Amino acid sequence: MAGDDLIPIFGVCLGLQSMALAFGATIHRLNVVKHGQISRIYHDDNELYEGVGDVHAVRYHSLHVMLDGSKDLECLASADDGKENGLVVMALKHNIRPFWAVQYHPESVRTSGGGEDVLRNFWRLAQNWTASRHRQVRPWDADVEVTIGKPWPNLQRLSHTSITPHLTVATHVLEHIKLTIPDICEAIGVASEDSDFVLLDSVAQPGRFSIIGCLDQSSTRIAYQLDEHDVVKVTRHGRTTAEQFGSQDIWTWLADFMRPRRAAGGEESIPFWGGLVGYMSYEVGVANLGAVTPHRTPPLASPKHSDINLVYVDRSIVMDAMTGKVYLQTLREHDHSWLEALAVLLEFRSFSPGSQRSHAPRAKPASQMKVSVLLPDKDTYTSRIRRAQEYLFAGDSYELCLTAPSRISVNNSSGNGRLSSWDLYKTLRRRNPAPHAAYLRLNSSILVSSSPERFLSYSRPHGTVCQLRPIKGTVRKGPSVTRAVAEEALVGSPKEVAENLMIVDLIRHDLHGVVGDNVVVKQFCGIEEYETVWQLVSVIEGQAASENDHYEMGWEVLRRSLPPGSMTGAPKKRSVEILHTLEDEPRGIYSGVFGYWDVGGGGDWAVTIRTCFKYDARDQRQDSHQSGPDLHDEWMLGAGGAITALSDPEAEWEEMMVKVESVLQAFQDVRT
Given the DSSP bridges, would you call strands 445-451 and 611-615 parallel, antiparallel or unpaired? Predict the structure, then answer.
């Protein structure tokens, strides 16, 4: 690079290492890897560091630079790792060319003092260099974008026109009702397992609203599988058709589906007026990344769940746990008679003595139900942890969320009916109450979840606020494990904080790319209490500038943020590719998301963890209460953990088993 092709360059992390290799330095492995670790950076207060002061910076690297007598490069800053790694180069400059670089990450949320100030100094140095050579600065135009890409943030609107609401929400409010969510579900027929049902259930804080879809034959079901490319299956009035979306993708097709269904007139405090409810698989997000992941098929015995499985809910019930109010809602025209009939039914159930159903599941003799569990092989899992760490030591990733499936077989040798998935959900709900629980019985898939983790929520426009709540760090509860003990074990652990920090930085990157500059970390590594565990939770929020805010803003953030970073590791694309080599089969429903997209433009999606699911064709459902020999169900349950360079394989295995047991115990309880 010389003459007119020479331009100022600022490198970060690998950028520093690339510059070092190009000009005679060498690259070596650190003795102790620094992923998500904060170090003090020592500098001489010149060049990049003029007027910067103290710097404490986040490091994400397992390799480091040794100048080895390079005459072209000069060290501007370093970190002192003591006995671990000694002095480590943290910043370089080229002595002749306008090249500068830092090894740490100036953009990290936990970098203090060496971020924006250093970038401003680079810009000053670059401008001075450009002016001294009488360079003409070109305007940013389409030709520049072809060469170096679009400016940031790159907001690709699905819709370029304002969307006028087409529907009106009709609402009937019930106050002082004496019914629980299970009571309401049973009042409207959830126990009949030959029909679809959707429940998004906030059983614990910080959850607040529980949502029940009131489905019938006219409710539109949408199913899509990645290997069917441009075909989506739509079921209306019991009739399924295959619709092609051609040059569009499934995200655009779904946006087109929702556009004429935009609504207004509902209670503003209620986040759901109606809309799409269901789940998306992990692989749906992977497909958006452009990651190199050769096709894998599930085991022959595993039926194929849809990758996107949604239903359009135009009649719904929403309970506000804070106020106790119940909202009956419809988007259908001239539907007041349904609202009145439902209100009468629920009020009768509420105020009639003995009409409420028991929250306990129907017991079956232990001799009838036999539960067998096939757990992941411990030796295989721990060996894969060590393989994952080799990738980390080599600099291919900072963190890898390694997972493995468990299989739960339920047999009823007496033939007196199968295990009720609704009973299973009620048992899990009671044992492990969670802010993002769910019971989805949709098409041929049944999902039972007690997820503690919100992936993404977004409020209605205008002023759309997007919130993500990644969980990284888990401690099993016990009599002696108080909040103070859990805080010491989690917040006091460099490993646990580093795990969380890496995902927080990844999520900030995803969110900045859509909404722009206004992204803040509302909570970093806070301790939250759940029924069986303490967890380390961070909260990140972003809001687009008013000119970019629109009805599909949240949908665009969802599309560009999947799969959840807490289920991949960082950096996301490369981590997904590595995990593909370490795991035997597609994850499917597990570690994807479930939730809703509201007709008012808001949405809320949880990470599919602490969740079991099974394939249950309609003909199987219809036979579920009939007698017959050896009725059999097979449920899947995924679990895993974030592997870092500091991970202990034995401890990681134990953490995974804590997560498995939080769901597995429900199978033992429901059968006895």
Answer: antiparallel
CA distances from 618 to 98, 192, 283, 418, 442 (A): 67, 12, 25, 14, 10
* Distance of alpha carbon 653 from alpha carbon 124, whole angstroms: 50
Half-sphere exposure of 535 (CA within 13 A, CB side): 21
Q: 């671990």: which residue's tokens?
A: 84
Q: With the CA atoms of 581, 583, 584 and 589 taken in that order, what torsion angle do they form, in degrees rounded to the nearest 10?
A: -130
Q: Which helix (DSSP H) or strand (DSSP E) does residue 399 occupy? A: strand 399-412
Rounded to whole angstroms, the Cα distance separating 667 from 295 reads: 33
Ranges of beta strands (E only) in 273-325 are 275-280, 308-313, 315-320
Is the pTM of the predicted complex or chain greater than 0.85? yes
- pLDDT digit string, tens, across residues 126-166: 999 999 988 888 777 777 777 777 766 666 554 545 668 88
Q: Bridge-partner residues for 540, per DSSP? A: 468, 521
Q: What are residue 264's DSSP bridge partners?
A: 168
The answer to whether the CB of 220 falls within 8 A of the CB of 236 is yes
Q: Which helix H or strand E contains 569, and what residues bound it?
A: strand 569-570
Catalytic residue annotation: 13, 105, 107
Q: Does residue 141 contact residue 536 with C-beta atoms inside 8 Å? A: no
């390694």: which residue's tokens?
402
In whole angstroms, give the CA distance from residue 302 to residue 314.
Answer: 33
* Closest of 202, 343, 176, 219 to residue 272, by C-alpha: 202
Which pair of tokens denotes residue 480?
């002696």
> Any residues with CB less than 8 A from the CB of 594 and at least 6 apart, and which?
200, 278, 279, 280, 438, 440, 447, 449, 451, 605, 606, 608
